[in-house]
Design brief:
By secondary structure, the protein is mainly alpha-helical. 57% of the residues lie in helices and 8% in strands. The chain has a two-stranded antiparallel sheet.
C-alpha cells in the first residue's frame, strides 16, 4: 500500500463552511476533477502548488490555514 503524503488539510471543513460548496463546484473553480478533490480531502493526494493557492484563495485564507505538515507521518 502506498504511503500517504505528510500533508494534512482542512479542505472538506472549509468547503462545507463555505455555503456547503460541493466537491464538483470546488473542482470546477480550481480546474481539476471531482475525483481529485476527493483524493485531496482524504489525504491520498497532495495538490500542485498552483491548485493549493487556488483553494486557499477561494476560501479567503492563507495556505497554512488550509494545508499543514504532519511531522509524525514524515518520520515514519
Amino acid at each position: 500500500m502506498a504511503k500517504r503524503p505528510p500533508i494534512t488539510n482542512r479542505v472538506k471543513e472549509l468547503r462545507e463552511a463555505h455555503d456547503n460548496m460541493s466537491q464538483s463546484a470546488l473542482a470546477k473553480a480550481i480546474g481539476v476533477t471531482r475525483q481529485t478533490v476527493i483524493a485531496i480531502e482524504q489525504g491520498r493526494y497532495s495538490p500542485s502548488l498552483e491548485s493549493a493557492f487556488r483553494i486557499s484563495r477561494i476560501f479567503g485564507v492563507g495556505l497554512e490555514d488550509v494545508f499543514g505538515w504532519d511531522e509524525a507521518a514524515d518520520q515514519s
